[in-house]
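User: Predict the structure for this protein chain, please.
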Amino acid sequence: MNKIYVIKNSQHLGTLLEEKNIITFTYANNIEEKSYIKGLKEKVNTSTTLFPVFQNLLPEHHQLELLIEKHNIKTQIGILLYLNNIHGSYEFYNERDFQTFTPSKQPIYNYNDISDEILESSYTFPNILNYTLDIKDEILFPEGLVYDQAMGLSGYQYKFSIDIDHDNSKISYNRDNNGLYIMKPYNKHMASFNRHTPDEYIPYLLLNEHLFMSFAKEFGFKIPYNAIIRHNDEFHYIIKRYDRYDDIKFDHKEILTFMLKPSSEKYNVTMKEVLLTAKENVEINELIYLFKFIVFSIIIAHGDLHAKNISLIEKQNILEEQEFMVSPFYDISTTKIYKSLKTKDIGLKVGNKLFKINKEQICTLAESIEIEKSNAIEIIDEVALLFTTKFKDYIQNLPDDIKGLQVKKAYGSFVPLEVILNNYYDTRITYIKDYLQVQSVIDLKNNEENIW
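Assistant: Here is the predicted structure, written as structure tokens:
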């Protein structure tokens, strides 16, 4: 038998109990029905598996296996006691530690009112920190952590909490896991080319993420502060948490959790299902904003956009909050520059396709959530033209030593990263012209070709 006390917004929400392979969640006596959460709508809830709202807090794959092995965990709910960097306000206590827990009343904030202050996204790309990295290699590259990109990227990226001292240009490990910043160190295995396993070669992934997270700001998307720090010939990635304000924590859930599905299903839903789920939980302006992000993701070939890479965040930090908005975006990159991942233009099917998605299919997706076709076409045209006119500026703004980074072709010579990015740009322009048929882009490219 195992018992865990669940805390949300610094209040005792309820208790998880696992006995004979049956998991029970029971709300605390003082919790009113208006504070019950998605998927746990009864006073007492039972399941043979961990409820999605908690299961989707877990790390995935090898990170999860390492935690289970390290702490000799024998139950499904036991892993919750050892989680680091939990998003939102959830906390988990065993019976002994719960005795010292004291509920606290917090000031109430509207997320929209303070989001700019939280995100601090006014940095200039590229944001390369020439800081001292006071973190041991055993933290950066823990033994036993293996990456496998067979299904995707984001769920396999190891991360931990850090502190940044901007005044003294120093980055250090946050042992309490309550820092305002997260670090993703690069993966040594994927950064190095091995001719025996060429499909596992994914160099400069975190530089890729910094580039496209920054580029997303051009389109009006809310993006947290992020940066890179050079380490030998690769880059670590730093991103600010978007769910923290002073000591306040805002709860947010992945779309997959709203669908009451576990992490293993994140690629097994469609983009239409994602948008229909969002439609049930956000206002129409937020839905259009999310649709625009999906168009952007298709155009940049964000092939790892799945149902855990889109979240909704609560409007206020109160226990009974039931109103949501689209959270700031995260884990944005293109998979098109990697040989083993370049077959997809998006992580979830639009219609019945993952690549070569045309304008009509995107418009059909829009109409399924009651966005008029004319509005959808306007969004497609706007995003496509902005990509066409702005992306090369981001390549150009990279310093020469980064543009000159060498990328090994699977069966060929090394090629500078600048060449890889320019070739990527050309293939996306071809896609826009042939499948999205954006006339302004076609005219612009024809004019460029005539000039030359």
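Confidence is low (pLDDT under 50) at residues 148-152.
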